[in-house]
Amino acid sequence: MGRLSAKPLVRRCVRSAVLHVTAKFPNHVRQVDLAAVPIVGFWLPWLPFALPQMWPLCWWIAVTTDHFSRRAMGVAIFTRPLPSGQMTAFLRRPIRKACATPKYLTCDRGPQFWCDGCKDHGIRPRFGAVGQHGSIAVVERFIRSLKEAGPRRTLISLWQRTFRCEVALYTDWHNEHRPHTALAGRMPNEVYFARRPANRSPRFKPRARCQRGSACAKPQILVKGKPGVRLELAVTFQNGR
Fold first, then answer.
1. Do 213 and 187 reside in the same domain of the chain?
2. Label partner for 235 (CA 20 to 30 A): which of 9, 58, 71, 130?
3. Residues 131 and 104 in one domain
4. What is the mean pLDDT for each group of 10 consecutive residues in the chain (241 residues)?
């Protein structure tokens, strides 16, 4: 019979090259990523029948987000994966538009992300874990939401100008109207521009017998006027979408 013996557990600590930073204010940390949006679907992923992931089979989108406010700072559409030169131009546009340079740029280890444009602006790189989902979670979540709520509900156009317009409409809606749990129900633009959150406005009470000091969904807000007010719900759509 075999014998069991207790041995001390040896833990090997491996020093990781991945340095995590926490965003403390807008334009402190930004994330960037690339993703393919299929037009007709990737039906043949096996060699030698596989086709290159480029137009007209798919669009490539480059996205950069502000980690603190979850705001999409820039989205661009391309027909194929970006080389370093185009990535430099893409990263410079949000910097010029916002007139603010981030201190850190979090991305995966794609060679096109760490380009001369970042070095010229003094941006420090922070690399996500290789092959690990969630290492650049904010920008990945934006891309997933864009695919689920945007192009997947409509036919993706083969025309770059049309598809760019659809992506721009979703980006505007995401920044201005989409509440985030991580932001305590606030919108990205409210956090980024330091505006008063809409969910902090005084609330209405449709029930006449309800007490003014009754609890509500967080955050706890005072009641506007008297309980029992009649409300009319008006639903609008982002440019008819």
1. no
2. 71
3. yes
4. 41 40 89 87 67 84 94 92 79 86 84 65 73 73 86 76 92 94 93 93 86 80 87 87 77
